[in-house]
Amino acid sequence: xxxxxxxxxxxxxxxxxxxxxxxxxxxxxxxxxxxxxxxxxxxxxxxxxxxxxxxxxxxxxxxxxxxxx
Length: 69
Description:
This protein is mostly helical and 69 residues long. It has one domain. The protein has four helices and no strands. The protein has helices spanning 2-13, 16-19, 21-39, 43-65. Helix 1 runs antiparallel to helix 3 (21-39) and helix 1 (2-13) runs parallel beside helix 4 (43-65).
C-alpha cells in the first residue's frame, strides 16, 4: 500500500488534480478501499485494490507530465 501512497503523492505533486483528476480520484478511492479491507483482514482484496490504485496514480502522473514545460 505504501507504493500506492507514494504514487498518489507523486501524481499530486505533478499536478494531477488539474491535469488528470479522474485518474487521481480513482487512485484515492481505491487506496481508501484497500485500507478499509486491510482493517477487515481481507488481505487479498486489499492488495488488489492497492495495486489498482497504484496503476491509476501512475496513469495520472503520466498524463500530468504531458503538460510539463
